[in-house]
């Protein structure tokens, strides 16, 4: 990641998450964001967006995957201060806020029982969303490659692949 060119006198950070703008003071207080906080921590502990999961906290499992500027990123590996002026999307932001309907990817996961415990599911769905944003008609191999960084300990990967391929056929 690039260096953050922040003046020592700057004391706030602005994040855009799921279309909403959030202003945080930088600091160590309970309602502040520390320069050492990861994006995953800030999403969960400061914004209450608990759909983003923290599992390995080392970038190895994909549970913390969110989208930043349309690309899948591991939020446990990014400092929050690195995300200023970026557009962040989490699992909570996928549905249609007007109709309340869920994203076609989420519906396909339900239709294909592409989850068991569900802990890894938000990260897998966000990786899928990033893939389909870039490539709406991936091959099964491209889906496997895009999801290679997401691990499911319940072993529902076959159902996940079926769900993703089904949503690509529907054009969702």
From TrEMBL:
InterPro entries: 2Fe-2S-bd, 2Fe-2S-bd_dom_sf, 2Fe-2S_ferredoxin-like_sf, 2Fe-2S_ferredoxin-type, Beta-grasp_dom_sf, Diverse_Oxidoreductases
Keyword Iron applies: yes
Keyword tags: 2Fe-2S, Iron, Iron-sulfur, Metal-binding, Oxidoreductase
Molecular functions per Gene Ontology: 2 iron, 2 sulfur cluster binding; metal ion binding; oxidoreductase activity
SUPFAM superfamilies named in the record: 2Fe-2S ferredoxin-like, CO dehydrogenase ISP C-domain like
Keyword field contains Isomerase: no
One Pfam family hit: Fer2_2
UniProt-listed PROSITE patterns: 2FE2S_FER_2
Domain of life (superkingdom): Bacteria
Domain 2Fe-2S ferredoxin-type: 11-94
Protein name: Carbon-monoxide dehydrogenase small subunit
Organism of provenance: Desulfosporosinus lacus DSM 15449
Lineage of producing organism: Bacteria, Bacillati, Bacillota, Clostridia, Eubacteriales
């Amino acid at each position: 990641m690039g260096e953050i060119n922040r003046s020592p006198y700057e004391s706030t950070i602005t994040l855009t998450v799921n279309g909403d703008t959030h202003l945080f003071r930088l600091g160590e207080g309970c309602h502040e964001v520390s320069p050492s906080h990861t994006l995953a921590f800030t999403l969960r502990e400061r914004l209450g967006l608990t759909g983003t999961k923290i599992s390995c906290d080392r970038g190895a499992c994909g549970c913390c995957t969110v989208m930043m500027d349309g690309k899948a990123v591991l939020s446990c590996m990014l400092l929050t201060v690195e995300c200023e002026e970026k557009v962040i999307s989490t699992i909570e932001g996928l549905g249609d806020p007007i109709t309340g309907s869920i994203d076609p990817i989420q519906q396909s996961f339900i239709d294909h029982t592409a989850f068991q415990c569900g802990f890894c599911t938000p990260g897998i769905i966000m990786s899928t969303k990033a893939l389909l944003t870039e490539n709406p008609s991936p091959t099964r191999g491209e889906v496997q490659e895009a999801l290679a960084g997401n691990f499911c300990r319940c072993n529902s990967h076959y159902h996940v692949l079926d769900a993703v391929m089904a949503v690509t056929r529907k054009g969702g």
